[in-house]
Every structure is written in structure tokens, then in C-alpha cells.
Specification:
The chain has helices at residues 31-44, 53-61, 129-138, 152-163, 174-182, and strands at residues 7-14, 48-52, 90-94, 118-123, 141-144, 167-170, 188-193, 214-221, 227-233. The chain has two domains: 1-46 and 172-238, 3-Layer(aba) Sandwich (Dihydrofolate Reductase, subunit A), CATH 3.40.430.10; 48-165, no CATH class. It is an alpha/beta fold. 23% of the residues lie in helices and 22% in strands. Strand 4, helix 3 and strand 5 (141-144) form a beta-alpha-beta unit. The radius of gyration is 18 Å and the shape is globular. A nine-stranded mixed sheet has the order 5-4-3-2-6-1-7-9-8.
Length: 238
């Protein structure tokens, strides 16, 4: 079976020493880089953005833990649930075991690059029945990406065909970025380089990676001594 997928852009803020997580993101030296990052996000006009569980938790759910007790006896089939495929803008949450506590079925954020995005949870089949029932109850879409591990080509095919996602911004963290890189599905890199060195325990752009070549497409000096680097994936000869 031929798999289809969106065009994927990995869009991140990175320190001078190649880190994408850590306290440096909240430092004064990074403020302008962050503002530029969000503007570039909006300028891409993507159909969706994707993040891993930890990034979603830090940015949107803020450790909220829903009460699942009312769903404890509900049985739910392991099949995809499409609550809304006409929204036109989606937040793809890689949350294999179903840990995130959403309150409603869309992202609540003042930024146009995130706000009102319909949430799609990417789960594995080991997720609990009560969590699936909870997602259905609040109208959050979900798709299964494998039994215990994420089958990324399958997930991307579902995002393309079930929701019409053609352009996807991959926005971390390091682990989920690495999953995409290992599958060789990143078409473009959009890096806002902040003029700051990160702390020791910050994570790199890709937690795991292969050797892959990219061609510099554009470089632009931004405000606050930050720089935008745009790379396009090298096309390999057949």
C-alpha cells in the first residue's frame, strides 16, 4: 500500500550550542527570537502543528488531570475517531499512552498560529478505555498509530487522508523530532537561532538521528541578534 503524507517542516528555536529545550527559552536574550519564531509559524499558514506529549503539557494542558471515573466501565473499540475533519487547522498531539488532560476539543491560545486548532490525539492501542471515552465525550479526535509503538508512516497517512492535512509544522520536543528524522520524512528545517548558549541539560534538535543532507534555502537576520535558517531536504537520486 502506498502511504501518503503531508509536507513536513521542523520549526524550532535553537540555542547557539544546538539545544531546543531548557531555561534559555525563558531568558531575556531569547525574547526576540521567540517572537520571531511565532511570527514565522503564522507566516507558514500550515494546516496543522505537531508536538510530543511533554511539549503539549507544558504549553497547553498545564498538568491538568481529568476525572475519568465516570467512564470506568465503558468499552471502546480500537478504531479511529474523527470528531471534526472540516476545521481546517489542527493540533496533532503524540501521546501514545493517553496522558494529556484536555478540557475542550481545541487549543485555547491568543496566538493565531495555535488558537482554535482542533486537537487530534495520536495513540497506541494499549491506551485505556476510560481515556478514549473521555476524549469522545469532549469531542477530541484520535487516531491509532500502532499497538505499542508509533508507526509514523501510518499516522502521517491518516493525517493526510482523514483530515486533509497537507502542510504540517513539527515543533518538538527533541524526542518526537528524532522520530520524524529517523523516518526520513522531514522536508524542511526552519530554525530560529537565538543569541544565547543553553544550560548543560538542554536537549538537542533531534534526540535520535541519521546522517541526512539539507541545502540552505534562505538565511535572514532577525531582531535581537537572532537569525533564521531555512534548509530544504536534499533530494536523493533514484
Amino acid at each position: 500500500m502506498i502511504m501518503e503524507r503531508p509536507y513536513i517542516i521542523c520549526h524550532m528555536v535553537m540555542s547557539l550550542d544546538g539545544k531546543v529545550t531548557g531555561a534559555f527559552l525563558r531568558s531575556q536574550q531569547c525574547e526576540q527570537a521567540e517572537k520571531c519564531y511565532y511570527q514565522i509559524n503564522r507566516d507558514y499558514h500550515a494546516d496543522a502543528f505537531a508536538c510530543g506529549r511533554i511539549t503539549m503539557e507544558e504549553s497547553f494542558t498545564h498538568d491538568y488531570q481529568p476525572d475519568l471515573s465516570e467512564f470506568k466501565d465503558v468499552k471502546v473499540k480500537r478504531e479511529d475517531f474523527v470528531a471534526n475533519n472540516n476545521n481546517g487547522f489542527f493540533a496533532v498531539s503524540f501521546d501514545r499512552y493517553g496522558k494529556l488532560g484536555w478540557k475542550i476539543n481545541k487549543i485555547e491560545d491568543d496566538d493565531d498560529g495555535y488558537g482554535n486548532a482542533h486537537i487530534i490525539e495520536v495513540l497506541c492501542e494499549t491506551v485505556s478505555n476510560d481515556y478514549l471515552a473521555y476524549l469522545r465525550n469532549i469531542g477530541v479526535s484520535y487516531i491509532f498509530g500502532g499497538k505499542e509503538k508509533t508507526d509514523l508512516p501510518l499516522v502521517l497517512d491518516k493525517l493526510y487522508n482523514l483530515f486533509g492535512i497537507r502542510k504540517l509544522l513539527l515543533e518538538g520536543g527533541s524526542v518526537i523530532n528524532g522520530v520524524f528524522e529517523l523516518e526520513n520524512v522531514i522536508d524542511e528545517l526552519s530554525i530560529v537561532l537565538a543569541p544565547v548558549v543553553a544550560e548543560t541539560d538542554g536537549k538537542p534538535l533531534f534526540y535520535n538521528s541519521n546522517i541526512e543532507g539539507y541545502e540552505l534555502s534562505e538565511i535572514k537576520r532577525l531582531s535581537g541578534s537572532s537569525v533564521w535558517l531555512n534548509y530544504i531536504k536534499n533530494k536523493k537520486e533514484d
